[in-house]
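Thread: calcium ion complex, take 2
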Amino acid sequence: MRSAHALAIASLALTGAAMGGIDATWPFDLETTGSDVTWDSTTAINPAAGRFKFVYEITAADADGSLGGLPLGTFDVLSMIPPEQLSDVGYAQGPAPVTVWSSHIDAPAPPEAPAVSADVLITVDGSGFAHMSMTNVTLGTATVNVPPFGTVMIDITRIHMSGTITAEVAACAADLNIDGVVDTADLGILLGQFGTDNEQGDINDDDVVDTADLGILLGQFGVVCSFE
Ligand SMILES: [Ca+2]
Ligand SMILES: [Ca+2]
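Output below.
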């Protein structure tokens, strides 16, 4: 029983590797007192992929601060980050090197004064290793409860964020749902996003889902997108 079960899992894993799907899940950790910081993945994904999908999720965020020069800390600031920035999805057309996700974050969201703002970039290099960077970091202020002072505005002096990055790859650029084949499911996704700037359906990365993307998809229609 045990060996049959193991075999089934092994063949499933093999199918996943050949057909696309989740290729890597990496924990990330970034900490800054205001300078640029970078994170590099420990393993590589297939740089020859036709399509990359990255999902990042921030699961912890804490900060140190100061009040009139007096060091204070450590505060949980996860709730300060806007929900739409706690998790996001990025797509890119391969092969690598590619930029999968590029954004400017402000936490908390304007018009509140930012506790932290930075440019965040996630890239895959030509060897398949992923890199994340925070640059142009500005640490601002945050309103926190500090006994016995009560609610006070502090200057943020250090911020730390951690979470996970999940990478999926597909052999074909038009395999939008990364299931190993270009079929009606992918066509449905593209048509549902037609006219929008949705990254999933934007196969050629020109910020619009239009007839150019439809042409690429139809050109790959019916193709089994295996790396082998
Ligand atoms: Ca598909
Ligand atoms: Ca497009």
